[in-house]
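Look over this one:
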Amino acid sequence: MRLRCSVMAASIPSFYLNSHQIPSKIHLNPTLNISKFPQKPIEIPSIGGICKRGSLSEAFQSLSELFKNQSRTQFSLDDAYSSVLELCGSKKAFWEGQQIHAHAEKVFDGTPHRTVFTWNAMIGAYVTNGEPLSSLELYREMRVSGIRLDAFTFPCILKACGMLKDRSCGAEIHGLAIKEGYISVVFVANSVVGMYTKCKDLNGARQVFDRMTEREDVVSWNSMISAYSSNGESIEALRLFGEMQKANLSPNTYTFVAALQACEDSSFIKQGMFIHAAVLKSCHYIDVFVANALIAMYARFGKMGKASNIFYSMDDRDAISWNSILSGFVQNGLYHEALQFYHYMRDAGQKPDLVAVISIVAASAQLGKKLNGMEIHAYAIKNGLDLNLQVGNSLVDMYAKFCCTKHMDLVFCKMPDKDIVSWTTTIAGHAQNGSHSRALELFREVHLEGIDLDVMMISSILLACNGLKLTSSVKEIHGYIIRKGLSDLVLQNGIVDVYGEFGNVDYAAKMFELIEFKDVVSWTSMISCYVHNALANEALEHFRLMKETGVEPDSISLVSILSAASSLSALRKGKEIHGFLIRKGVVLEGSLASSLVDMYARCGTLEKSRDVFDCIRKKDLILWTSMINAYGMHGCGMAAIDLFGRMEDEGIAPDHVAFLVVLYACSHSGLMNEGRRFLEKMKHEYQLKPWPEHYACLVDLLGRANHLDEAYQFVKGMEVEPTAEVWCALLGACQNHSNKELGGIAAQKLLQMDPENPGNYVLVSNLYATERRWKDVEQVRMRMKVNGLKKNPGCSWIEVGNKVHTFMSRDNSHPQSYEIYFKLSQITEKLSKEGGYVAQTKFVLHNTKEEEKVQMIYGHSERLAIAYGMITTPEGTSLRITKNLRVCGDCHEFCKLISKFFKRDIVMRDANRFHHFKGGVCSCGDFW
């Protein structure tokens, strides 16, 4: 059979020399002294000439004559048969090829006197036609008939054993070759090597190779080098290539291809360049197969410049040449270059095939080039490639990345064959794009199809369950994972993450503890769980444990821990993390940069926040938004507006969130006109439809300025139905300015629209309490109790040393509780005598005695935190306090007096904004 070299071939065919002459004398007890034979097969001018002329009918007739005229010395029937089949293949005459095979069987069956040559030809025909079982059955029939084997019998039957991966049968035939003395024939020995290679027995192949005392046949070396290369034994393949060169044997195309394939990654770059040099030095014409192997090797090394140079220097290129460059660009992340090369490919008249389509679909998906992706999809449909399984899977993935779930579903549904990748990719596409119900629907179909679930599919279903808040389903999947013993780290991390999202912190913590080998994702999932569930102290503690175990945090874990430091206003912890980033040389960009800016802002150091912002070269929209928000929460409304303008001047278009934070800044600085202007700008200049939060910001802005009638008219004139956020903003303003009538309307609307939010009941209750409507207050509180809702208790915390100390209202749990209350009484006494402080009991919204109200005010959590700070820090040290609720008017006045009479600056962050108390004045201007 004529051989064709392919750069993608895994091994050298075992009967490359199956048409060599038979030696005149056979050694019956050989030590594998290989006989030397001519390296070229005997040509058959008649059949060869006919095939070259391309005449199928003549070739068919000539083949029939050859079957009848069995003269071994004149021709190789197997070779002739293969030549005719190749002709059929080149002309895509598959039906004629089947006819030839059927004709061969018919002639064989009708031959009364079959010689060994006839048997060999028919056995070889079955192998060539991809029927190894039939060839072995015919071989057994031949043995039963008493026909003595010759050397040409073995390559065919050994190849059949290799095709069937039947090592036992192959070893038996190997033994027969030794017994009959044919193992000394070079092509028989090579066929044995090839058989063991196909059966994944490299040791057996190597033993046969090593027993060859005279290894001057390059095919023997090629067989072993190719065997090692195709089985991942790269070092041994390259070592054997070196030995071959030391033996002064000249490598051929097959040798170079196999050796280049052994250079599987960039760690073999020196060896690969050595082989390239050997190709050039050998004066060997660099044919298309060697050139393709070089391109593929340099692509694996990430050296696409060298790969391209080889490609453009080629005189002849085949489809593999074009595909190797195209796939090389994609595999190395050079997606723009891949698209450019694709267009060059089309302009050059090269028609993209299956491999090219898959590569360009992947490049389009990675770049988000929807039009390019749809164009190649149309090409695939037009050329009948879209029904291919791999193409279908690639298109599904592409449309998932484009967020086009409808197109993705259409591709999926039209696929005639689907594998686990098809189902997993489609389910993941729906889950990642928010089509959670559809993901679960497909998951049920997977169960009905009886397909085994893989890790990726289960991870996607967990994501879908998370999106739909299906706690019970997550527990079912968790149980399935346990029953099936799927202790995959990815799944374990996913379970921790989902339980954290659901608020099942205990479940998440138990799952985390069960993970034997925790990686950075495991720790990040647990830290994020604590942050998400307002357990910042636990998050910081786990970050400490993570570093102690030697796990290096990544950008995602750092963002999570910065969020924990921000929520606690733990400046020292935040600085530690910033220092860690500097020591590790981490480039500040993206979410990490914006998180650091946000952390410093929420810890009360606006100047440091701006320093970080200014040092970042590439500022994205999120970073600008974070800095604008920082100014807003510190009451620097005009600075926020100026920065918003600078952002626009830089050519960065604001989105919904950017407008929300600038409106927030206007609200907390009393900038009504600017607030109105930004809302109009958002709608008309940027064509952004406002969210309910934008409307709520403007209502809050008007309400704080006591423009309640205008605020109410704005609410009634909104283009969309006012949401609970809008009515909540109006109700808060009504309480601050004691507007009973509007407050009653807002309260009624708020409880109708959002009856499950305890904060709304507290707001309504406080409104009634300011009006001394104690019965209504009691009714609201009873309604809360019936609905199973609880008010979030007031809580404040302060960072002292390396620890965050937390205080509740009238708290006695702190170890230094006695000292704290004693210090607080001293502070109150001094402020009363020197500052004229008198507790304003109107801020105590409880129906109780005046003395009790005074004691309640004295026990507010922020006062306890301040007293503890004054005990534990040197005089004159600034105090940084964080409170989970809005600071009351009396405590606000109390803090101003402390800053004046005790010379203590206080930076307090409450639920609304920052307050900087200094010298008896607050930065909010009493507007909060």
